[in-house]
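Annex B. Sample input.
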Amino acid sequence: MQIKPRQHMLEIWQAMARHSFEDGKLVRGDTDGLSSVADAERLLCLLYPATEVPAFRLDQPDTTERDVLRALDRIGSRLEIPPNLITALTQFMRTHTGTDDSPTFAGGHYFRPAEPDGEITHEQSQLGVVDSYSMSVTLCLATLGFLKVYEGTTTRPEVLRAIAELRDATNARLTAAMVSLLRSFTVNVFDAESEQGKRLIQVVGQGRQSDRAVLQQFSRKLRPLRATIIESLTRGIQVDEGIRDESQLFECGWAWGIVKDAPTVTDLDVQVHGQPDGIADRLPYVYFTVVALDGIQDLFSDRTLTLGLLDADQQKLAEALRLRWELSQQYWSAIARFGAERWPLEDLPWQTTGLRLESEYFSLTVAAILVHDLIRRKATDDDLTRTVAVMERLADRGRVTSRMTKDDPTIRLHTPGVTMPLAGSEHSGGVLLWRMTDYSAQLLKRIIQLATLSRNIGAQDRLLRLAEQAFEHLWARRIDDEDGVGLWDDVRSVYPDARTAGLRMSWSITERVTECLVAARNLYEQQPIRSPELAELARELLSEATHLFGKEQLEASAAADGSRARAMRSIESRLDHARGLVDERPATAFALALPVLQELDTLAQARGAAAQEV
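Annex B, continued. Sample output.
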């Protein structure tokens, strides 16, 4: 199934508007209002494409396209959509604000109790979580960009007042989310002889070397990273002094929430209220690290920089987060590619060191961090090709591109999903779990990102075929009846043996698919990969065509409006066009040169035949 970003995105918008808006107002569904994560995901399904894709822009009503208006007619007319979006966003900001007027980042119903018959308390449901911090960064930046452009198109006093109120609330939430991300980053230092140390050595060494050799290689490979951590990490984090000892192992990344004993951030021009004490253990999770990386990279996007969306304090926080963003990518990329032979990432499934869990989902999250790093440092062809192979295996093992067998345990990847205990959550009254059900959507997202990065024709072709298969799998999982029609997730539509799975409205998966379509649009906006071989052939064809065209011009000129004169003008125009394309689109130049050569040959034959008759 071919990915058609515009058509498919409009279908999602139409379904989202039908589900979530009535007479232009945002309405609550059964799953809404219980989690700041779900509420942010729902709004991002609409606002993220509207601010990232020019054809879907809603901040300049005069330019909104007709098919977009038809898809969003439940939200309002051309002039009504922006004010109604402002109202919906303001409603979100007010809903997720505490009694002390500070933003809240409650995980809500996304938290699960560890006990089968257990329940989470209200206090537990209000705990902040990295998913909410990261989603808030993306949502707030999209909102600020939307407001900045739309403000210049309206003079209505009541709308300008609403814009000012929403901008203040959004800036406060953005700053609080960035501070919380800083306080959720952690460096975990542990001894090589500890249980966690032995597991890390086993994962990276794959049993092919002695523990001592692996430890020495770890120390040597990560020495520059260790030095950067010692010298640079001072804001919002406490680092164990053991990091200075090269015989100690370490991991870095994001915990599930604010780390216990994380210091508050105070060196800003404005006071940030609502910096709660953390309870999360100093344990990085690859899942929450990926989530944080996805949000933080939006702080450095071209749109954020061009529109100047960050104030002075936010720029300071962004630089501190960027350092952690780079450190995390470098660390997990080094771990994923550790050693000289087979990568640890290629040894599926990945085993976590802190929680002793293993799953293809964790392999996918480590691969996602590797993709971030490959994009950052412009990967080699070898790295890219090996990562493509990992993605193909993950698609197969997750039964995204292959059929599910009878009583296949792989179904648990999709329903009920992969669960993780949140280390330290027991301090809130009981252990909480976090469940991930978006394996297929995350896989598609990383495949498209890799395809965008690839400049190798063979690798990109493999990735595009894989992306189309994964997208077809996901598209078939849309709900086709009840309230969430056209949205996600209906697992049984592709896995009929998933007897316990029912229709489940999932803003998480819907938002991930939306991100995938935006990424696919960016992929198609790129110039196609240039083939050096075709470029050389195209130049040879154009050289011969140019020579023959010059020879044809030596013949007696015909009337300016005659058929031969028109043919000569057409040939000259097509030759100029093909020469202009040969460097960027050699295959197109090649295709244009062939009919020109055929036409020149036809002219030459006609002239020869005429000469024989005379």
